[in-house]
Design goal:
Elements lengths: L2 E5 L3 H14 L2 E5 L5 H5 L7 E7 L1 E2 L2 E2 H10 L11 E5 L4 H9 L4 E4 L4 H24 L8 H8 L8 E5 L2 E6 L2 E6 L4 E4 L2 E2 L4 H12 L7 H8 L10 H16 L7 E3 L3 E3 L4
Parallel strand pairs: 1-2, 1-3, 3-6, 6-7
Antiparallel strand pairs: 4-5, 8-9, 9-10, 10-11, 11-12, 13-14
Helix pairs in contact: 7-9
Length: 271
């Protein structure tokens, strides 16, 4: 049975979502304080979780900080990568951007329809299933992001990299060195070092790796990593790229892996 963790201090919202989850055949676990989340995630019961719905404003903490803790906590194993959808009553766009930058997969602004939240969760899971299927069967691992990306993807095999399916995962060879992606545990390695990436950061890098000679606009990258792209948030890509660069520099600061093409976007190789 699909199990959802809801972290929300409003009983009315929790009751409404619990009814909706029951209609979907899902089981919902409700916690109303941030302090209860990490102990729960370390329990055996939490190992069957499919997603976390996380309120940004909690009585004893900040949902954004809690998301950061989840993404960085090695003690919860594979739950580090569990889909997280934020609930926020705040109208400030900065809060939504911060949530995505910290590793959130999507958000719903209050007031919201429970059916919308269900649709967003289903979209995240479908995207994950498609992503796993594509990476297991084909070197073209990223989701096709509109007609602008489709044309370039048709020429991937003619470009200066290769992706070979191996028992350990998928290996990419490009100017920055050897990369390996392991779809079974969503791990991406560069120079044999595992990168500590959020879901969005990992999808961004995989999108760039599939076409290392292409320059992607912010809008193209946003479409590639989100089923609900809001073009007003295209600038969030800059923050994700900055975070990725910091991690790559920790591995090898002598190589500029991601290039900024002024007025155009980002790519792995200079145009």
């Amino acid at each position: 049975m699909t199990q959802i963790l809801l972290v929300e201090d409003d009983p009315a919202i929790a009751t409404s979502l619990k009814i909706t989850c029951k209609r979907e055949g899902w089981q919902m676990v409700w916690l109303d304080h941030a302090s209860s989340v990490m102990p729960y995630l370390k329990s055996a019961e939490a190992q069957s979780l499919s997603a976390i719905i996380l309120d940004v404003g909690l009585p004893d903490g900040d949902g954004l900080s809690l998301c950061r803790t989840i993404r960085q906590s090695a003690s919860i194993g594979t739950l580090q990568d569990i889909p997280i959808v934020f609930l926020t009553a705040r109208s400030d766009e900065v809060d939504r951007i911060s949530g995505l930058d910290l590793g959130g997969d999507d958000y719903c602004a209050k007031p919201f329809s429970p059916r919308e939240l269900v649709a967003r969760l289903n979209a995240i899971w479908r995207r994950g299933e498609r992503h796993a299927a594509d990476t297991a069967q084909s070197p073209e691992i990223s989701k096709r992001a509109g007609s602008e990306l489709t044309q370039s993807q048709n020429h991937i095999n003619d470009q200066t990299h290769s992706a070979d399916n191996q028992s350990q995962g998928i290996t990419f060879h490009c100017n920055s060195g050897v990369w390996q992606y392991q779809p079974l545990n969503y791990s991406l390695f560069w120079q044999s070092t595992k990168l500590d990436l959020s879901n969005t950061e990992r999808k961004l890098l995989l999108t760039l790796l599939q076409a290392p000679n292409q320059v992607f606009s912010r809008e193209q990258l946003l479409i590639a990593v989100s089923d609900y792209p809001d073009h007003r948030l295209a600038r969030t890509i800059d923050s994700h790229i900055k975070s990725i660069r910091k991690q790559l520099a920790c591995v090898d600061d002598s190589i500029d892996v991601i290039f900024t093409h002024r007025g155009l976007g980002y790519g792995l190789c200079p145009a």
